[in-house]
Amino acid sequence: MSSHLWHAAVVATAMATPAICETAPKDVIYAEGAIETSLTGVAGNPEEGVRIMTTNALGNCVACHQIGALPDVEFPGNIAPALDGAGDRWTEAQLRGIVSNAKMTFEGTFMPAFYKVDGFTRPGDGFTGKAATEPLPPVLNAQQIEDVVAFLVTLKE
Amino acid sequence: AAPLYAASQPETVAPISINDAEIELATEAEAPAHLDGALPKIWSGWLFRDATTQSMQMDDFENPAMVFVDQGLDLWDQPDGAEGKSCADCHGSIDDSMKGVRAAMPKMSEDGTDLWSLENFVNNCRTTRMGAEAWGWSSAPMESMTLAISMASRGMPVDVAIDGPAQSWWDKGKEIYYSRYGQLQLSCANCHEDHYGDWIRADHLSQGQISGFPVYRLNGAGVVSIHERFFGCVRDTRAEPFAQGSPEFRALELYVSSRGMGLPVEGASVRH
């Protein structure tokens, strides 16, 4: 095997296996809706957070939320409160909890849980319309949650 | 349920004025009593579409659904199956024999043991009376035929029976309407009761009424049946939808129809 290919194999394995300190969705501890510690121990990347929040197939947060700091987003939805000032209203731990499973903060909320893998009614395989068996992959993975939180904390009025 | 972020009312409730006011279809009606105050008024999905889409439904010559209505009318007269009969052979004129039929669907089957959608009635005639093959639920001939039949009820208020033997179907449909399906955990009510009038990205949410169905959709450039629309909405919650034609979707159809009682059947409607 050439060293080039070997490198690629190592990288692929590293991506597939979660880091040792990553908290799996089922092991997350919510304290009044908040998650105190980082899900990965790796600092989130706010720019990547923006990409996740504005990409349909990922967070698609802008389907429901407007964000003044992102004026280039076309047609943001208005189902949910604007996220301006979210970093003033909530601590990092609370924001991590809201993004992972907003139902732990807002009972019965419309907002989907992005880091939850089971307990669904008729779960499907993404948007294919086919059945899927739980546990499903979470909508966002642990590092993606951290990236989104890293952007949310910057939203100060 | 009182919406958290207020559902907004349409800006105007002008009727759909077709062919220079030759036909006027009301877009607003009183909410039926069985909704127990869940909606203040009921509104046609037409009100929530942009002006270009709306105008396509205001002139029968420009309405892209009319091509399919014509195909349905052709099928009505066309003999098919082992008996060599056409719909017209038994029913005569579609305008007279099918008047009011769409407005009352779904309803109990001929023997009273099942809840049938319009598609079931059509296929029952095809298989038991014509010796013809059943059409697929959302197949091209079925959509054209149900569209042509709907035109015979154009302007008549939706009026479905929800008591007697239909009551248990209605209860089941209501339960489905309020169930939060899929990985996104969303119910029909989350979008169409709590947030009609709001925008979900570039989409203006309506009350999800089916008085306009089957509709011509610009997005996809074709006719969409009621169950096809249900399927798409449930799929978009990252769920496994029920099958088109399933007892669950027929029950849901009865319940959603009942939420629109009083709105006129639109016949050939256009949506984005």
From TrEMBL, chain A:
One Pfam family cited in the UniProt record for this chain: Cytochrom_C
Keyword match Disulfide bond: no
Keywords carried by this UniProt record: Heme, Iron, Metal-binding
Cited PROSITE patterns: CYTC
GO terms, molecular function: electron transfer activity; heme binding; metal ion binding
The Cytochrome c domain, residue ranges: 44-156
InterPro entries (alphabetical): Cyt_c-like_dom (IPR009056), Cyt_c-like_dom_sf (IPR036909), Thiosulf_SoxX (IPR030999)
Name the record gives this protein: Sulfur oxidation c-type cytochrome SoxX
Taxonomic source organism: Paracoccus thiocyanatus
